[in-house]
Amino acid sequence: MEMPELSGTTRHALQEAVLSPRFYTTDFAAIDRLNIDALRDEFEWIRDEFAHDYNKGHFVRNEEFNANFDDMPVRSQFIEFLERSCTAEFSGCLLYAEMTKHLKDPTLRAIFKYMSRDEGRHAGFLNKTMADLNVELDLGVLHTRKKYTYFKPKFIFYATYLSEKIGYARYITIYRQLQKQPNGIIHPIFKWFEEWCQDEYRHGEFFSLLMRSQPELLSRANRRWIRFFLLAVYATMYINDARRNDFYAALGLNWREYDQDVIRLTNHISTQVYPVTLPVDNPQFFHNLDACVEYDRKIRALEKRKDPIAIAQSARLRAAIGTRLLSTYRLQPAVTNEATRWKGLDGFPNYPGPGRERATAA
Ligand SMILES: [Fe+2]
Ligand SMILES: [Fe+2]
């Protein structure tokens, strides 16, 4: 369909590619029926954390953003990075706003409202940075025209929890790397990542709490769904980032080492709530993901050809990716125990336990 009134970037963001950020919708009435009373005090504590609004003054651009970026390295890849990030942030903003609209529990409503505030701020900050580079991504158009993917509530929880935590891991890993080698700071926006990713970490803390408040989400057959979502999130990022190796190289990062660091960190963090995670230390694990990257590279090389042989080869390679992912899924999972469980982030508040109001009043 021709949409001539839309900028090329908006149109691109609307395209439904398999590996692109999506917009989600769910069964809000079912979520509204959840009872969180067993952990109510902890929910109220985390709500107060969000109310604190630690990053209220953080997302303000300075004069460094006014520089001319016409000749910056990997400019088009950087724009694509902004576009994907902005779409993902905006997707969170909309989903959390819908939750606020549909839920009756006052604590949950407040939390989703604060999280939507944060994601809206993140999307806006990226969007302005795109405008600096003369790229227009119309969030209003995205809102009304992008297709929504329906996920059952529990799948929304597994997927959103992981996307918040892997978002944290991605931003903090880039930030720390750029601190070590400032030559890689190809744009000032990377200097904002440290505080930024703490918002994502906090959002993930909420979803961790939400899953803990519904213990059946973490037991029996659902353990298989947990492993499925871990693998889907890791493999999607790995294949996506392999395609963008020159962007990461411009930041001074080796995409493969970067992705493996991010996956290890996310996997460790997720032991805070998941009774099983993926065996990232089993050599077969990254060996399989590397094989998927190689198949994907061959598929893309075949894309220019339209002959039946190329189509058949490409189908065979896609099947090979599926087989690799299945055998990765079947590797013996890592079972969480007290010794391996993630204990929290340094300098980041953990729930102090009930009785905090008395403690504050004293
Ligand atoms: Fe965000
Ligand atoms: Fe977030």
Blueprint of the fold:
Elements: H1 8-14, E1 23-25, H2 28-32, H3 40-52, H4 75-102, H5 106-132, H6 139-145, E2 148-150, H7 153-180, H8 193-212, H9 222-243, H10 245-250, H11 255-270, E3 276-277, H12 283-302, H13 308-329, E4 334-335, H14 356-361
Parallel strand pairs: 1-2
Antiparallel strand pairs: 3-4
This protein binds fe (ii) ion (2 copies).
One fe (ii) ion (FE2) is lined by residues 89, 92, 118-119, 122, 199-200.
What binds here, in terms of ligands, is: fe (ii) ion
> What's the total number of strands?
4
> Uncertain segments of ≥5 residues (pLDDT<50)?
358-362
Output the CATH topology of one domain.
Ferritin
- Sheet with the most strands: spatial strand order: 1-2
Structure description:
- The protein has a domain at 19-222: Ferritin, CATH 1.20.1260.
- The longest helix is centred in the first third of the chain and has 28 residues, at 75-102.
- The protein is globular and about 65 Å long.
- By secondary structure, it is an all-alpha fold.
- Residues 358-362 have low confidence and may be disordered.
- It is 63% helix and 3% strand.
- Bound molecules: fe (ii) ion (2 copies).
- Residues 89, 92, 118-119, 122, 199-200 line the site of one fe (ii) ion (FE2).
- One fe (ii) ion binds at residues 92, 119, 164, 199-200, 203.
